[in-house]
Q: What sequence folds into this?
């Protein structure tokens, strides 16, 4: 019944009625803010002269390092459960700028045109410094240092290990070394990053912003401006995509600052070029040494990871930690050592991005597995079958046992593209002169995410009125995943009501219902459970009330299809709630707690594993290096998809973004600047890039710990695309590209043609 | 002949006539969103690349972000708000809902208007034609397979309607 | 966001030329704005006044006059890609026009605007070199006619004087029995490489060829030296000759390493696409006339 009900956010979205932050009407007296960003990637700020800008028509106030009114500009880095982080970023540049796009000044004016014109009149005198854009170079002695007080560009190290690595390599008959690099990439949500609308009323900061974590943002703003937490209210209208990027970025702090200062509402409207300079995915180098026995059994993995977080810590701790705990893939490795280093460079700071840290390691381990198998003359499919973890196997201390069936996932993935999983037995010789313009190849890749990660308790509140209508309040934004629809479905099922009787409110932190945010695959699991529990509690309250009004024991009452039943007798809900009088409602809170966090454990706060398998067929033109993806299948373990079309859309969408990461996307820094930080130069996947045969489906055994057997699964499909393409390319041409994106030029280079 | 800073604009938007003075530099996107409060048309790249601001001017798809409002003088503009007939949705809108052709929804008005322009020009497009045409409309959520399905289904619904 | 602007709307060529003469560098010709407005938003171009030439009678006309296909400066890419007379007289050009940017840009952007910007990453100029097209220009000093090859000077630079207006492009059809092909490498928003080839074959040998490459260097170029070297050769020999022309191409095209690829990659792909374009053009010579769009790489 539920799946027949249309996804609840879509009618508004297809009619243009859905409002995003920029669509909200101006508040009375709204001023417009514009930003001045640094054109340098690394420079000292010698002087800022804003006198001309302040005199510019329509200008109300200028914000720069000279106009802070005593505010401490230092932003608080999100705490990390495992790693020590230090606050290292100011919301507005003070002594130096450390990336192309750092916020140097902002202007509030009567209208946007006046604000933009005034920004052009701010004179900033810079002394350019040598930038460093490569993390490996940034670690070398003599490299330019970004944060002088640290004396090094190394932020922190993280590690994971078990067994005895020396013993592991002693047991090996063969040892292989493999390196794979991933560039920094941009989330590119269609709604630009950094916009907001803010006002201050009675000392309360009222912020409307596109964000995935309104509760966290509210507390960070309160801390930053030194006001009580109850003096910040964050509301989130529809969000035009995030993928990890929609957080509290400096421009939002600037807008709040200006609004407090001028005592008027302020609206920040970022351009696409601004958006490009607000967030990024971490670049990474994955270097692995693998020990393998003659029979193909892996004995040891020693991996070294360099994670480039850009100019400031931002998401560096999560990225390096996620990279470290995922660098071993999904294989049985008795002796393991993984070390990860987080490094500063003069790039746009990298925050969280869809499968943070794991896109990079999956690209590494899954290509390395394929490469090692082939070097040993073993079919990669057989090699994977031999080494992959099976259901109920022990994985690592502090984690659940393996809770999926990789053999089933692989089988389904290859069957979907009509492949038996076997690769071409030998490396084909150079195809020149074969007369076949396009050469086919097939490859696969597996992934393992730790599902539903961390974040503490999630809360939701359910309210039933005398009409029997239920309203769910929560702080989980609708950012594209179908969050609100999911909440509606869980509530409807928990209460046995039609979904049309459930109202899901937009997030508002004034309800004070904590939730870590719609990220890290936690929404279905954590928010789903919180909603389910709120509804279970609501039902219990309803039965108590029914027993009081009509008699019997609460345990004897049932709620069946919107009617309260006692034995054979059924009552409308309204009759029971109405007994409370006038506008009475029943209101209950529910919550979900993640497993308690062990600070010392590498894997903390995780509920389950989130695996996937992918198989891909491509053809490549050996003369031009052009790739056409013919067939792609990805199978994710969803436990149970609560709204199948939405879950499928997530899996498909992740894969499409994966095509971009694999084939086109990279932020390029050269000659001191961010070269392609604009929509014209940064290539995104378009409809023509989607394979003709594209199967995204789910394994549903109903065995997840989430509501009704579900699991977190939204990040499982993005990670497998690049290694599946890399492996299929090798299958086709015997050429291996080891750095993303896999461009035609790199393919030609790998073939020795240029 | 004297240069003018404003333009006396008369046009029809979603079936309603509008006349008034607009600054020469006002884009159609600004005109629709700020003057008429038709915020279904979205601002994103402002470079004619992403298609989020696509509207129909005399039945042709245009990037309203990079099209001066005065150019629409005497013309008919259709935006996402003008597609449904009261409560009755257009077949494209229905198909997008059915197929989850929208996720975050930000590109959706542009996708639907671009598809509308395609179906006016080619009522029975092939999958290749749809992909070719809509490759100028970016969906970062990656709903392309569902969008393509939606356009195919809507094309059929339009044909049946006639 | 665009700064404040003023608008002039001349309805005759004289009015437009007069306005350009009077306003000098305070004005810019406005022919649709697809490129101009983008550059203005990024402050790469500033101007006070837009001189909208779209109201000049006949300025968007497409017609065959018995000698030339005449395309008015304000003919949109969409008009060109969908015009029966263009498909009849210059199908290669119509096909290239159908590949310009995206459908919205084709609805707005004009041929004149495109040529006058001379953005190196553009399609029409390359193809029109193979047609040996000319442009007709007007100013208060009178009219003049220039070969397109002499009009397109350098990156974002043409022979158009500040007070001058491009009226139309005159496109002679390809000579009898000559067939063409336009191929492009299009991985990013703007094409990396465009190759136009037109061939007249005679019993398996190349009787006459016209070759042009665009997007790689500052402006599209005819490959005169290669044209003369392949004259009289078979297709197979021509392919071998092309493979040996990297130095010539490097000097002629002056490619640079950029986001679209390295110099080596661009030169390598220039040769690959040239060979393919020759091949396709030759195939068309063997076939009865068709209007099928060229294979896209």
A:
């Amino acid at each position: 019944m539920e799946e027949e009900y249309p996804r609840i956010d879509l009618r508004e979205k297809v009619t243009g009625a859905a409002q995003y932050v920029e669509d909200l009407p101006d508040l009375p007296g709204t001023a417009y803010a514009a930003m001045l960003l640094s054109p340098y990637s690394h420079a000292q700020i010698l002087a800022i002269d804003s006198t001309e800008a302040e005199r510019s028509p329509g200008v109300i106030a200028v914000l720069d390092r000279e106009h802070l009114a005593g505010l401490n500009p230092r932003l608080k880095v999100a705490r990390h459960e495992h790693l020590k982080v230090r606050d290292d970023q100011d919301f507005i540049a003070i002594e130096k700028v450390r990336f192309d796009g750092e916020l140097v000044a902002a202007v509030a004016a009567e209208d946007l045109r006046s604000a933009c014109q005034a920004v052009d009149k701010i004179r900033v005198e810079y002394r350019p410094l040598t930038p460093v854009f490569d993390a490996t170079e940034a670690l070398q002695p003599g490299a330019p240092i970004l944060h002088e007080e640290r004396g090094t560009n190394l932020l922190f190290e993280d590690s994971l290990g078990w067994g005895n690595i020396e013993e592991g390599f002693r047991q090996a008959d063969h040892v292989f070394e493999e390196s794979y690099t991933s560039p920094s990439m941009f989330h590119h949500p269609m709604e630009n990053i950094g916009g907001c609308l803010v006002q201050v009323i009675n000392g309360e900061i009222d912020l409307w912003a596109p964000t995935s974590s309104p509760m966290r943002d509210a507390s960070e703003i309160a801390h930053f401006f030194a006001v009580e937490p109850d003096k910040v209210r964050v509301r989130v209208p529809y969000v035009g995509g995030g993928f990890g990027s929609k957080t509290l970025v400096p421009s939002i702090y600037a807008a709040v600052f200006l609004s407090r200062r001028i005592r008027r509402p302020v609206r920040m409207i970022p351009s696409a070029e601004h958006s490009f300079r607000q967030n990024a995915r971490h670049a990474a180098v994955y270097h692995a040494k693998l020990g393998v026995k003659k029979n193909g059994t892996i004995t040891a993995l020693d991996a070294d990871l360099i994670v480039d977080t850009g100019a400031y810590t931002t998401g560096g701790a999560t990225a390096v930690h996620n990279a470290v705990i995922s660098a071993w893939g999904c294989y049985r490795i008795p002796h393991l050592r993984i070390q990860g280093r987080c490094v500063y460079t003069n790039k746009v700071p990298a925050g969280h991005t869809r499968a943070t840290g794991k896109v990079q390691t999956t690209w590494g381990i899954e290509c390395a597995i394929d490469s090692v198998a082939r070097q040993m003359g073993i079919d990669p499919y057989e090699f994977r079958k031999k080494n992959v973890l099976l259901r109920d196997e022990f994985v690592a201390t502090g984690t659940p046992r393996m809770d999926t069936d990789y053999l089933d996932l692989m089988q389904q993935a290859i069957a979907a593209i009509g492949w038996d999983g076997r690769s071409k037995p030998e490396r084909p010789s150079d195809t020149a002169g074969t007369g076949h313009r396009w050469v086919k190849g097939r490859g696969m890749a597996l992934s393992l995410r730790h599902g539903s990660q961390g974040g503490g308790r999630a809360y939701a509140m359910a309210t039933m009125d005398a009409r029997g209508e239920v309203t769910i309040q929560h702080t989980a934004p609708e950012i594209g995943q179908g969050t609100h629809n999911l909440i509606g479905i869980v509530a409807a099922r928990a209460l046995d009501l039609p979904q049309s009787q459930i109202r899901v409110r937009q997030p508002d932190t004034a309800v004070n219902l904590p939730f870590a945010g719609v990220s890290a695959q936690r929404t279905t699991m954590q928010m789903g459970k919180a909603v389910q529990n709120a509804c279970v509690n609501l039902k219990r309250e309803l039965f108590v009330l029914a027993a009081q009004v009509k008699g019997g024991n609460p345990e004897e009452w049932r709620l069946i299809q919107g009617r309260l039943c006692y034995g054979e007798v059924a009552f409308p809900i309204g009759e029971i709630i109405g007994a409370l009088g006038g506008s009475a409602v029943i209101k209950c809170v529910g919550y979900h707690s993640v497993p308690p966090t062990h600070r010392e454990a590498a894997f903390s706060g995780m509920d389950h594993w989130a695996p996937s398998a992918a198989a891909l067929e491509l053809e490549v033109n050996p003369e031009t290096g052009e790739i056409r993806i013919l067939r792609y299948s990805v199978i994710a373990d969803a436990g149970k998809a609560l709204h199948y079309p939405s879950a499928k859309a997530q899996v498909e969408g992740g894969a499409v973004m994966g095509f971009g990461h694999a084939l086109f996307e990279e932020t390029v820094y050269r000659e001191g600047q961010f070269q392609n930080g604009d929509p014209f130069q940064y290539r995104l996947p378009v409809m023509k890039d989607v394979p003709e045969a594209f199967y995204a489906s789910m394994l549903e055994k109903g065995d997840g710990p989430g509501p009704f057997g579900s699991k977190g699964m939204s990040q499982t499909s993005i990670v497998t695309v690049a290694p599946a393409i890399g492996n299929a390319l090798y299958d086709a041409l015997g050429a291996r590209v080891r750095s993303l994106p896999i461009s035609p030029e790199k393919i030609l280079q790998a073939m020795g043609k240029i | 002949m004297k240069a003018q800073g404003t333009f006396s604009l008369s046009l029809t938007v979603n079936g309603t006539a509008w006349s008034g003075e607009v600054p020469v530099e006002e884009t159609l996107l600004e005109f629709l969103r700020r003057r008429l409060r038709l915020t279904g048309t979205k601002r994103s790249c402002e470079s004619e690349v992403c298609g989020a601001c696509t509207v129909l001017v005399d039945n042709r798809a245009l990037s309203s972000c990079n099209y001066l409002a005065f150019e629409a003088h005497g013309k008919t503009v259709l935006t996402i708000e003008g597609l449904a007939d009261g409560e009755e949705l257009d077949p494209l809108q229905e198909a997008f809902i059915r197929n989850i052709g929208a996720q975050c929804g930000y590109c959706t008005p542009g996708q639907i208007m671009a598809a509308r322009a395609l179906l006016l020009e080619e009522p029975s497009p092939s999958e290749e034609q749809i992909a070719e045409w809509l490759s100028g409309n970016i969906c970062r959520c990656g709903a392309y397979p569902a969008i393509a399905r939606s356009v195919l289904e809507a094309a059929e619904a339009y044909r049946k309607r006639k | 966001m665009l700064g404040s602007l003023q608008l002039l709307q001349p309805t005759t060529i004289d009015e437009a030329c007069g306005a350009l003469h009077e306003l000098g560098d305070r004005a810019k010709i406005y022919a649709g704005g697809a490129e101009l407005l983008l550059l203005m938003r990024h402050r790469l171009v500033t101007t006070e006044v837009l001189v909208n030439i779209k109201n000049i009678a006949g300025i968007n006309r497409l017609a065959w006059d018995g000698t030339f296909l005449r395309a008015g400066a304000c003919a949109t890419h969409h008009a060109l890609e969908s015009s029966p007379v263009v498909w009849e007289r210059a199908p290669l050009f119509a096909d290239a026009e159908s590949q310009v940017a995206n459908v919205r840009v084709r609805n707005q952007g004009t041929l004149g605007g495109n040529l006058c910007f001379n953005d190196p990453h553009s399609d029409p100029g390359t193809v029109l070199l193979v047609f040996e097209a000319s442009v007709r220009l007007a100013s208060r000093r009178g009219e003049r006619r220039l070969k397109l090859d002499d009009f397109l000077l350098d990156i974002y630079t043409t022979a158009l004087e500040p007070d001058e207006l491009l009226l139309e492009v005159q496109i002679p059809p390809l000579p009898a029995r000559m067939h063409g092909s336009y191929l492009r490498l299009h991985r990013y928003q703007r094409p990396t490489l465009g190759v136009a080839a037109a061939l007249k074959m005679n019993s398996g040998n190349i009787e006459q060829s016209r070759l042009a490459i665009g997007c790689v260097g500052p402006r599209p170029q005819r490959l005169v030296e290669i044209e003369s070297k392949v004259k009289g050769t078979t297709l197979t020999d021509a392919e071998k000759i092309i493979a040996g022309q990297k130095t010539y191409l490097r000097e002629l095209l002056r490619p640079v390493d950029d986001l679209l690829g390295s110099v080596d990659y661009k030169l390598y792909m220039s040769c690959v696409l040239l060979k393919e374009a020759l091949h396709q053009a030759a195939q068309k010579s063997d076939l009865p006339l068709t209007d099928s769009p060229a294979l896209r790489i």
Observations:
- The CA atoms of residues 257 and 265 of chain C lie 9 Å apart.
